[in-house]
């Protein structure tokens, strides 16, 4: 059965690859959600005047990969203690949010957030928001599949603190 998930966790360029490479993922689209302007452009979102957040919309086969597994991947790509952006990306358009599209997704996301907080992995509170899904607008073509089309630039963006944070906080 095909379903969708929407996650915001900083620059959408860095959010695609961790999901895109999982079995059961049909597509990952970079885009914008949560704002007031229909079909915003990258420049409009970057101006911090539309209320949008950079996000990824993931279409997945729930018989192969569960929503709960996607949420776990999400936590490992973000700093859930930073509500003001992610890593080098600062501002409301980079805030961490799990956008849920059903009561079941909300239940899974909230339970996962509680479990992460209870794990005491982080010394600061978990501040990632869980919000109802809002219209999702795909970003311009140059922002799609960025890690494949621009591997050198992607590596620079990815190394802007994200990988160090992940290694320090998610070693099992």
From TrEMBL:
Entry's EC annotation: 1.8.4.11
Superkingdom of the source species: Bacteria
Keywords, ordered alphabetically: Oxidoreductase
Regions that span the bilayer: none
Catalysed conversion reaction: [thioredoxin]-disulfide + L-methionine + H2O = L-methionine (S)-S-oxide + [thioredoxin]-dithiol; L-methionyl-[protein] + [thioredoxin]-disulfide + H2O = L-methionyl-(S)-S-oxide-[protein] + [thioredoxin]-dithiol
SUPFAM superfamilies xrefs: Peptide methionine sulfoxide reductase
Active site (record annotation): 11
NCBIfam families: msrA (TIGR00401)
Entry similarity comment: Belongs to the MsrA Met sulfoxide reductase family.
Protein name (Swiss-Prot/TrEMBL): Peptide methionine sulfoxide reductase MsrA
């Amino acid at each position: 059965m095909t379903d969708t998930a929407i996650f915001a966790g900083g620059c959408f360029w860095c959010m695609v690859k961790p999901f895109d490479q999982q079995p059961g993922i049909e597509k990952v689209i970079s885009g914008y959600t949560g704002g007031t302007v229909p079909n915003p452009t990258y420049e409009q979102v970057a101006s911090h005047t539309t209320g949008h957040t950079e996000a990824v919309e993931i279409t997945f086969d729930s018989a192969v990969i569960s929503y709960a597994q996607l949420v776990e991947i999400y936590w490992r790509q973000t700093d859930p203690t930073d509500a003001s952006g992610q890593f080098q990306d600062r501002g409301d358009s980079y805030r961490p949010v799990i956008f849920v599209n059903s009561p079941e997704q909300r239940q899974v996301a909230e339970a996962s957030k509680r479990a992460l907080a209870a794990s005491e992995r982080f010394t600061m509170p978990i501040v990632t928001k869980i919000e109802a899904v809002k219209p999702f607008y795909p970003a311009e073509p140059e922002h799609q599949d960025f890690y494949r089309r621009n591997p050198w630039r992607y590596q620079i963006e990815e190394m802007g603190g994200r990988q160090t944070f992940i290694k320090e906080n998610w070693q099992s």
